[in-house]
Amino acid sequence: MATEIKICGIRTADALDAALAAGADHVGFVFFPPSPRAVSVEEAAQLADIARGRARVVALVVDPSHDLLAEIIREVRPDVVQFHGRETPEQIREFRLPRGVEVWKALPVSDASDLEMLADYAPLAERILFDAKPPKDATRPGGHGRSFDWTLLRGLDPSGGFMLSGGLNADNVPDALKVSGLRAVDVSSGVETAPGEKSPDLIRAFIQAVRGADARQEKQSS
After folding, report:
1. In the annotation, is 131 catalytic?
2. Active-site entry in 17, 25, 111, 131
3. Where is the N-(5'phosphoribosyl) anthranilate isomerase (PRAI) domain positioned along the sequence (predicted)?
4. Active site (annotated) includes residue 8
């Protein structure tokens, strides 16, 4: 089974073109102004129109208002809304997304006890992303280039709709896949030359590294 790849925090047509040409499965747009990767609804709508039909469009939100989320749904028409803040299960239920729009929820991880949140969120989300906990003084919940102990995820069912995030890049993603056992990855800062500045070359290298790991896994299984 091919690993699903999400390139998140896309802001420019060049970065989007590189992700699509290299075969990304999902492209993510960030709607959180403190992030250097943030885009406006109008900018995201234009980029989403380019991506539609070639990759799934993911709208990343952090503790959004109902009005903002409604505007994103109406103008961007994402396939997925990824909740990346402190949204409670009750708040996620209240948003009542349109039929066909998936819910993804990011959970911050630093030790095994953090996985206890799965019981509350898994029934509400088509996919759970595991991201490293941000630094205590951080102004945003993700995109810090930090990783966590991937062995914590070894007992999870790889077909259970899980995605690995946090500190991934072309050099370490093969090991991350092998250690965690998951078959979906999300990258943002690991394909940048500076915060918010995506590199087409690094995007291509990341996707090639994942596909290479897939090929080796398939060969070993055959």
Report:
1. yes
2. 131
3. 5-209
4. yes
